[in-house]
Amino acid sequence: MTATLNPPEAERSEKPASRRGDRIFAGLARGAGLTILLALAAVFIFLFVEGWNGLNAEEATYRPATDFLGYIGPLILSTILAAIIALIVAVPFAIGIALFISHYAPRRLATPVAYVIDLLAAVPSVVFGLWGGRYLADLLQPVHVWLHDRLGFLPFFGPDPASPNGRSLFTAGIVLAIMILPIITAISREVFAQTPRLHEEAALALGATRWEMIRYAVFPYARSGMVSGVMLGLGRALGETMAVAMVLAVTPVATLNVIGTASPATIASNIALNYKEATPSRQSLLIATGLVLFAVTFAINFFARWIVGRNERKQAKA
């Protein structure tokens, strides 16, 4: 009777070691999370301290603008427009490729296609910039003319004439779309593949087509992961520097026209182009613009995490 009530000696000796391992792992995980928070706080403090003078500098520092809002406004507009173009182009392709790899392509084809898409993320941004500025811009120039002739009544494609060399915000957005494509594809592919097999088989057993199964079983399960992938791609598009700087023909004019020659730089590319030769007051101004970009990116990611959490709570209640 005593032998049945007391646990074996081996089991009793393993419990303290197991608890010790759990404590070590929990401490490491907690330390990693706090390190990330400290790093973000350090970046914010640096940008705020170094860029404070740029918020209230002399009027000559903001030329051709007269104040900080007039200086940062065109940069924010260009940054957001380029990121929106990138998302409009990249998201449908990324989701389609992810679905093809996870649900349509045979295994012998899906594996190499996934490898090729993942390799796009390893290409340096300067290579995309060279390709976009020297080749893609010329290739897209007829598209610029077509958009201006057919859709010139919209502020995004008129009334100014199309760029004669194709180096516009539209081309920069296409380059950004290619750069963020592997990020969104990889995350979407993984969440699609994790959809419970029973959900898919149940939908097919009820007579659903493959597309209906994906629509009603895969997409609801993967919605939060898809949003996370899109937001990561958006963060990459907002912060890209060299590719945009090498493609875009920069002017200080604020405009909604994405195919014309008058396009201001994005915030990140403006910093990369001007920081090295800037005076101390101008450097403070550029750091202040970096603070604005940091805040915009943080706000977008916070909003994305709120959407993901809201969807997860809805699924838990369902």
Automatic annotation (TrEMBL):
Membrane topology: Multi-pass membrane protein
Family per similarity comment: Belongs to the binding-protein-dependent transport system permease family. CysTW subfamily.
Keyword Transport: yes
PROSITE patterns (alphabetical): ABC_TM1 (PS50928)
Residues covered by the ABC transmembrane type-1 domain: 76-304
Gene Ontology molecular function, alphabetical: phosphate transmembrane transporter activity
Transmembrane parts of this sequence: 24-48, 68-101, 113-132, 169-187, 241-265, 285-308
Protein name: Phosphate transport system permease protein
Keywords, sorted A to Z: Cell membrane, Membrane, Phosphate transport, Transmembrane, Transmembrane helix, Transport
Function field: Part of the binding-protein-dependent transport system for phosphate; probably responsible for the translocation of the substrate across the membrane.
Primary subcellular site in the record, as a coarse category: membrane
InterPro entries in the record: MetI-like, MetI-like_sf, Phosphate_PstC, Phosphate_Transport_Permease
GO annotation (BP), single: phosphate ion transport
GO cellular component, one term: plasma membrane
Location within or outside the cell: Cell membrane
